Structures are given as C-alpha cells and as structure tokens.
Amino acid sequence: MPKQANAAQATVRRFSLLDSVSYAAGDFGCNMSFALKSTLIIFWTQFMGMDSALYALLLVVVQIWDAVNDPLIGSLIDADHHRHRRNKFLAYISIGSIGLIVGGALCFLPLPRAPLWAKIAVFIGGYVIWDAFYTVANVPYGSLLSLISSVDTDRASLSAWRAVGSTLGNMVPIAVLPFLIYDKEENLIGERVFLAALIMGGIGFLCFRFMIRNTVIRVETDVRLHEERPRFHIGRAFRNFVKNRPAVGATVAAMGMFLGINGAASAVTVLFQSYFKNVEISGLVQVFGMLPVVLFTPIARRMVSKYGKKELAVFGSLCSIAASLLLLLLPITPDAQGIALYVVCQLINSLGMGIYATVSWAMMGDAVDYNEWKSGAREEGVVYSLHSFFRKLAQGIGPSLILIIMYRLGYVGANKGNQSLSVATNMRYLVAALYLFSAVLQFVGLALIYDLNRHKLREMNEALAKKRAAGN
User: Fold this and answer.
1) DSSP per residue over 318-332, as a string?
2) CA dihedral 150, 314, 344, 396 (to 10 degrees)
3) Which tens digits make up the pLDDT trace of 114-134?
C-alpha cells in the first residue's frame, strides 16, 4: 500500500478509502448508542408513566451536567500532554466506547411500577453516566478529523463518510426498532427497548474497535513539549471559541439541524401513532428520507473541490427551508396520499440537511485551523467540546421544550398512541413548523455567521502551511 510521511516525518499509509470508512465506523458506533435517545420521551412518558411536565423539567436538569461535562472533558483532553502509545484521542475513545455499552442501557431500565423517587433517580443517574461516556468518546472522535489529514479534499471525504456512518447508525435502529418495540396497539414495550440498548451498545463498541485499529494520524499536534509553549487555559480557550466565527457559525447550524432531527422526533412519533395510525412505517419513512445523504456522499469530494464547503452547505439549507414550507402548506391528509406528500417533502428536506451533514465536520476541522491561524493555539478538545455542548443542548433542551409545546397542544402521555384527532392534527403542523425553524437557523449559521468561503479558506491554508514550515 502507498506510503507517505506525516508531520513528524514518520512513514505512514497514504490516505485512502480505508481512512474514510474506518472514520465512518466511529460515528456508526456513536449512533448505535445515540439513536435510542429519541425514544426517551416515549419510554418515560408512555411506558414509565412519568408526567410530561416533570420529564421536561428533569431533561433540563440533566443538561446542566452537559454544561460541565463537555467543556470539562474537552479541556482535560487538551491539557493531557502525556505520550500515549498511539494517540491520546484514540485512548479516550477506547475508554468511552466501553462505558457506552452500559450507559445507554441504564437510561432504559424497565421499572414502570417503581415509586416516583426511584424513577427520577434512575433517569438522572442513567442519563448522567451515559452522557459522560458519550462525551469521552465523541469529543476526541470529532477532533480526529483534523489530525488524520490536512488536505482539504481528504477532510471533505472524512466528513462525508462520517455523515454516512451517522446516517446508517440512525437508519438501522429507526427502520428495525418500531417493528420490535411496539405492540399491535401502537404501545411501547419497555423491556424490549432495554434489551435493544444493550445490543446496540455492543455493536457500537465493535465499530469503535475497527475505527481505532485502522486510524492513521498524519498531522502532528502537541506531542513536542517545547518549554516556551504557554500553559493551557480554559478561559482563554473559551474566549478564542467565541471569537472564532467559523466555529460559532457551524455550531449554530448544527443546533438548527438537531432541533429539526431530535426536537421533532417525539412529535413525529405521535404523528404516526395518532394521525397516520401506523407507527411501524414511521421508521421506514425516516430511513427513506435519509437516502439523499448516502447518495450525495460519493460526489461530495468532487462537489467541495468545485464549489466549496460553505457554498454547498448554504444551498442545502435553502433546500430544507423550501421543503419545510411545502410540508407546512400542502394538504398532508391522514391517508396514503398524505403520507406520500410527507415522504416527498422529507426527501427534499433530507437532501438539504444531507448536503450540510456531509461537509459539517470538515467545516469544524477548518474551524480548528482557523483558531490556530488567529490565536496561535489549536485547542481541538475545547473547540469540539463546546461545539458538542451546544449540539447536545439542542438535542436535550430542544425536545424538552417541544414536549412542553406538545403538552400545551393537548398531548397526554397516559393516552399513549390514542391521542384525539385535534391533538394528532396539531402534531402534523408542529412537525412542519419545527423543521422550518431548524432550517432557518441552519441558514443563519452557515450564510450569515460562518465566513470561511473557498477563497478565505485558501488564504488560511496557505498562511498555516508557511507557519508550520517555518516552525519545522
């Protein structure tokens, strides 16, 4: 296999499809654990019988842990200057992948007859443990992209394949689980969810092992401990992040995307339970909507080279806005014709989100370089952990706020899949409104805040190349 020299002048395997596939396996592993998160609301409000308002409050409470968890672990990783056998990011990913096997299942302990205080303790404890291990694995995993290669098109390939890994990691459980965890009356079977969480955690662990084994580090970071290097300071790192327009723009866009995906997930489930009266098909519909991500991936590298990452992502957000408007205005009736229109709108929406998803992590890799360009410090861990924190804020607080809106629109968790027609109709419009809001927020982040267009990106890469050459 062809060889090349990395930044430390060691001979390593030349970048190839194996790098992209193995990197994709990492996000497949993450999503084996993460995919069930959209089931949390249904599990706790319908199966466990927890009041919707209480669940929304508890979900906000555990996000406080996120506020400490992500930046703390990110700063600890950045401050870790020990010489690991291969790479410190790979070492942390290995630890996190083990914890995810148990952490994900703890969130779904099937104890519907337990007293309320015990349910609260199980929910908070399980979520905190799961979230800690998820962060230990996911933050360094995101940081790896900028270390596997410094070549722009290589990063685009890694980002695109990561989107494939993420999509497939969501597609498998989304397509299969509805047939396994719901009974004939559209009610959730909690014991099966717990078993599924254990199995998916194990599959995720195996995917991480494959990724770790096949990852090659070609970009040197801070392994050379020069005496003149300033000590790591989390306050300075946070200020650098706020001043980093590409990082902030990419983060706002990601929050928009996940508000659409995760925020609407519970409303979508209720939509198919009570409006379309077919919750099993919901998984297949969502999987069908993810196909544009997979189809766009093979041409992503060529498109990035021709048009630029920012430019493609902005076009994608405009597609999502158009699709969401159609979903809101078209007559989506509770029959086969309505489902068909829903699927068409979701295909266009997914195309838009898919275009952004395939380049989103490459854009974050560029944001790390931008941090080095402007401040002189890479600080991958903090940049990615703060990005991850705000993403998870959208993933966590978003669903809790949407649940409150659902509650105000008449949703009753105790009714399970038997919501009234007026409530079901409200869900139909709520889903469309959520997708529209998320698409607009995505456009704001990408078009108005993120400022690394293809010309400025070329300027930055040339300046960094000269700086690194002078440093050697």
Assistant:
1) HHHHHHHHHHHHS--
2) 70
3) 999 999 999 999 888 888 888
Q: Domain 17-220+233-471 falls in which CATH fold?
A: Growth Hormone; Chain: A; (1.20.1250)
CA separation (Å) from 441 to 74, 201, 401? 26, 32, 17
Percentage of the residues of the chain whose pLDDT score is greater than 70: 84
Beta carbons of 148 and 216 less than 8 angstroms apart:
yes
Best CA proximity match to 193, nearest among 47, 14, 88: 47
Q: Would you state the structure tokens that stand for residue 383, as one six-digit string?
A: 């940049």
Listed in sequence order, the DSSP H helices in 279-335 are: 280-307, 309-329
Which one, of 304, 257, 311, lies nearest residue 451 by Cα?
A: 311
Residue 25 CA: distances (Å) to CA of 55, 341, 351, 418: 33, 33, 22, 39
Alpha carbons 118 and 127: distance in angstroms, whole number: 14
* DSSP-derived secondary structure for 9-24: S-EEEPP-HHHHHHHH
CA geometry: angle at 376 spanning 370 and 382, to 5°? 65
**Residue-level pLDDT at 451:** 86
Helix (H) or strand (E) holding 12: strand 11-13
Q: What is the pLDDT of residue 7?
A: 46
Q: 267 to each of 87, 184, 273, 338, how far by Cα in Å?
A: 42, 20, 10, 17
Is 419 in a helix, a strand, or coil? coil
Confidence check: pLDDT of 445 > 80: yes
Q: Measured in whole angstroms, how far is the alpha carbon of residue 146 from the centre of its chain?
A: 17
pLDDT tens by residue, 244-295: 888 899 889 988 887 777 777 778 878 888 888 877 677 677 777 667 767 7
- Report the chain's C-alpha Rg in angstroms: 22
φ and ψ at residue 79, rounded to 5 degrees: -80, -10
Q: What tokens appear for 255 in the block?
A: 């929050």
**pTM tops 0.85, yes or no:** no
172's tokens? 């498998």
Task: Render 140-172 in DSSP notation, one character per residue.
Answer: HHHHHHHHH---HHHHHHHHHHHHHHHHHHHHH
Ranges of each domain in the chain: 17-220+233-471
Largest interatomic CA distance in the chain: 69
| pLDDT band at residue 323 under the 50/70/90 scheme | very high
